[in-house]
Design brief:
Blueprint (H helix, E strand, L loop, with lengths): L11 E2 L8 H14 L7 H14 L3 E5 L2 H11 L6 E4 L6 H8 L3 E4 L11 H10 L3 E5 L10 H11 L4 E3 L7 E2 L2 E2 L6 E5 L12 E5 L2 H11 L3 E2 L2 E2 L10 H10 L3 H18 L5 E2 L7 E2 L6 E4 L2 H13 L2 E2 L21 H9 E3 L8 H14 L1
Parallel strand pairs: 1-16, 3-4, 3-5, 6-9
Antiparallel strand pairs: 2-10, 7-8, 7-14, 9-10, 11-12, 13-15, 15-17
Helix pairs in contact: 1-8, 2-8, 3-4, 3-7, 5-6, 9-12, 10-12
Length: 370
């Protein structure tokens, strides 16, 4: 381990993307070049959709060019576009961006202080108070599943769809099912920072052939050949991106196992007081997508970040600020729990190859400041 005050030889970022084997990826490139079929539902996309369906043990998967567009398509397919939608203020900005781009009005429901997921009791109050709510968009934050039983009962009772933003949940399971299998629809991100990725990409998990065909039409510009059926957008995944996914899908278990090992090192080395971890839902098989820690104050968080940056270690404030405080929203909705947590939460570097010496250094710096 470098001596105190010494800088790391290379910067350490919050994550490090896994990359495909060059020779394996080159074989796919050869097939793509030979066919000259580079997009528009090619062989690699179809193969990856089939392999994801089998791996996740779900009925239907539709790939998209990124998770944000996948979420926008899901809002349209679920009949939620243009409506008031109950959602969480604690997520990546793409959650609320997708709502705004589809003409929705976010109705922010504060989070549970322990799990950091949407609080079902507060959702129930919001649904009672606002008859205009036309759907629910919770987020399985950090790969930790929401209280799906309560969320889906509330959705049924209010006769509104529940669409899960499961962008961070690939590889997490609950009740013997993939976390992506819950809800009327679920959306996942395959950005390069994720457990499994296609460089850029995303997917929708749907439960009916009607939904699947609607999404395929939406992502292909809303037309089939020269027949224009509805408003759509170009949200297709390219063959090059699908090939990355085909190369990486078989490495997901090893990637999660490596991240679990690094997380266990943090667990053993970080101080027992002065920070806390989000509480995982009982029965969850976790994917170790992130290692978030919550400090007692924002001041301590900023001091930790400054100290780590001096050592060329770059954690991230996932997720800051709370989305209900964004300056371009039409009105401020108070969510005190999310606002407080967002100021104090920090995600530490986490990837399978992270060296023990770096984890020790990070833990020592945090311990000294806390």
């Amino acid at each position: 381990m470098p001596a105190s005050g010494a800088s790391m030889s290379e910067p350490v970022f919050v994550t490090r993307a896994i990359v495909p084997d060059y020779r394996e990826y080159s074989e796919y490139l050869g097939q793509i070049f030979a066919s000259r079929h580079m997009t528009n539902d090619g062989a690699c996309v179809r193969k990856l959709e089939k392999e994801l369906t089998d791996r996740l043990r779900v009925t239907r998967v539709a790939l998209c060019s990124n998770g944000t567009l996948a979420l926008q398509l899901a809002l349209h397919a679920a009949g939620m576009a243009g409506k008031a939608i109950a959602t969480t203020p604690f997520s990546f900005v793409a959650t609320v961006s997708a709502l705004l781009w589809t003409g929705c009005t976010p109705v922010f429901v504060d989070i549970d202080e322990e799990t950091l997921c949407m609080d079902p009791a507060k959702l129930a109050s919001a649904l009672d108070a606002n008859a205009d709510i036309g759907g629910v968009l919770p987020v399985h934050i950090y790969g930790n599943i929401c209280d799906v039983e309560s969320m889906e009962k509330l959705g049924r009772d209010a006769a509104v769809p529940v669409l899960y933003d499961a962008a961070q949940s690939f590889g997490s399971e609950y009740g013997g099912r993939s976390v992506l299998d819950y809800g009327d629809l679920a959306v996942c991100s395959f950005h390069a920072t994720k457990i499994f990725h296609t460089g850029e990409g995303g997917a929708l998990v749907v439960h009916s052939e009607e939904q699947l065909q609607a999404i395929r039409l939406l992502r292909a510009g809303g037309h089939v050949g020269d027949t224009h059926i509805r408003l759509g957008v170009n949200a297709k995944l390219s063959e090059f991106h699908a090939a990355i996914g085909l190369c990486l899908l078989g490495r997901v278990r090893d990637n999660i196992a490596g991240r679990k090992r690094v997380s266990a090192m943090y667990d053993a080395l970080l101080p027992a007081r002065g920070i806390r971890r989000p509480k995982l839902r009982q029965g969850l098989v976790y994917n170790y997508a992130y290692y978030p820690v919550i400090f007692d104050s924002q001041d301590i968080l900023l001091r930790v970040m400054d100290a780590l940056r001096r050592e060329q270690i770059f954690p991230r404030r996932y997720f800051f600020p709370a989305l209900n405080t964004l300056p371009y929203l039409p009105a401020r909705q108070a969510c005190p729990v999310a606002e407080s947590v967002a100021r104090r939460v920090l995600c530490l570097p986490l990837y399978a190859e992270l060296e023990e010496s770096i984890v020790e250094k990070i833990a020592a710096i945090i311990s000294n400041i806390v």
